[in-house]
Design brief:
Length: 387
């Protein structure tokens, strides 16, 4: 076999996976499968380079990395948990890094322990299942961490017709620092496109909140950032990310003269159809309450919002502004609703980032649960056939 064929066989899988990745990203960058293609490409390319340039001494650093990486990650997660609790207080969300570390330890150790203690066949089988499910869990976690980071920094040279700001809690009647970061990021984007487009501030009122998040964001935009009231549309009924985007889409579709929402037809969102209908029935009140009297002048001439409506491009393009750890999930939801959108992320404090991203990953995994079912099915078949 010639050197050319050896090189082709060695690097062929990486080239094929790279082409699949590029095609998939160009087709739709907001898909979870892009993260899988990217991780497989990195692994295949790394493996090919190792085989191509292998040296005997390389075995030692590879073993050291394989052994100590899990130890370092687990240690970091426990330390991060202490730091987060110090800043944010003790709660289920603040101990997520420690829980994640414990799950990692169980997945790594359980199967070897069943072999060491010579557990019965069913015990070894359960240990193998935990190890396999854990392997997919942590592989997809690393894949999503890598791809979501790349997705956030992809170049975007577009003008957006709407800038949706997702709510993130209040301190009294003021936005939290996290929410202020989102609002400021949105204003920076709006300024970069010379004031083109309208803001949609999206967030309902929690049981412990004095006003809605949408109202607080609107006040901050007007009073602190100097944004004209005419440039702001308030959506104050949503309580989740999915509702933020769905209710905002209802507003944008109505302004474009589109009566049927993609969200109501998407099978991934059927569990929310009844809420969507309620939002449709009540949205007109919310939108009209958010549009200031200055929209139309006393002489009957159209104000800025009405002028924007008259010249609004349909289909419109949207920027969804949220925290950086939340960008990919919000973008994936927007894709499922048929929105032409890009996710824009605001900065999150470094100590809180691991906690926030773990929470995001768990939410995304719930939407992509079938691989875990497939692993269980293959394991069950193996347990039945292999005696």
């Amino acid at each position: 076999m010639t050197d050319w064929w050896q090189t082709a066989l060695l690097y062929g899988p990486a080239v094929l996976l790279g082409l699949l990745l590029v095609f998939s990203v160009i087709q739709e960058p907001r898909r979870f499968r892009n993260a899988i293609w990217l991780a497989l490409f990195v692994l295949s390319l790394s493996g090919a380079l190792m085989l191509d340039f292998w040296r005997d001494w390389a075995f030692i650093p590879i073993v050291l990395v394989a052994v100590f990486t899990p130890v370092i990650v687990v240690g970091f997660l426990f330390v991060n948990t202490v730091i987060v609790i110090h800043h944010e207080g003790f709660s289920l969300s603040t101990i997520l890094p420690a829980l994640f570390a414990l799950v990692m330890m169980v997945c790594v150790a359980v199967y070897p322990l069943t072999l060491y203690f010579n557990a019965p066949r069913w015990g070894k089988g359960v240990g193998a299942l935990i190890a396999l499910e854990g392997l997919w869990f942590f592989f997809t976690f690393a894949a999503l961490l890598l791809y979501s980071t790349i997705y956030r920094i992809l170049p975007r040279r577009r003008k957006y017709d709407y800038i949706i700001i997702l709510g993130a809690g209040l301190q009294g009647t003021k936005p939290t620092p996290l929410l202020r970061g989102r609002i400021d990021k949105a204003v920076d984007l709006w300024n970069r496109q010379d004031g083109h487009g309208l803001f949609i501030v999206s967030g309902g009122q929690g049981a412990d909140e004095e006003i809605s998040e949408a109202e607080a964001m609107k006040r901050y935009l007007i009073e602190v950032r100097g944004v004209p009231a005419d440039d702001i549309i308030k959506e104050d009924r949503s309580t989740t990310t999915l509702e933020n985007l769905r209710n905002s889409k209802v507003i944008m579709d109505e302004r474009c003269g589109l009566n049927d929402s993609v969200a109501s037809r998407n099978p991934d969102l059927q569990g929310h159809q009844s809420a969507s209908k309620n939002s449709n029935n009540n949205q007109e009140v919310s939108v009209s309450s958010s549009v200031p009297p200055s929209v139309s002048s006393p002489e009957g001439k159209p104000g800025r919002v009405e002028r924007m409506k008259n010249r609004m491009s349909c289909p419109y393009r949207v920027a969804v502004v949220t925290s950086d750890y939340h960008v990919f999930r919000a973008s994936e939801y927007a894709r499922k609703m048929g929105l032409k959108s890009d996710g824009i992320g605001s900065h999150t404090k470094s100590y809180y980032w691991p906690t926030a991203f773990i929470r995001e990953f768990i939410a995304i995994s719930k939407s992509h649960f079938w691989p875990y079912v497939a692993v269980f099915a293959l394991w069950a078949v193996w347990m039945l056939l292999v005696r």
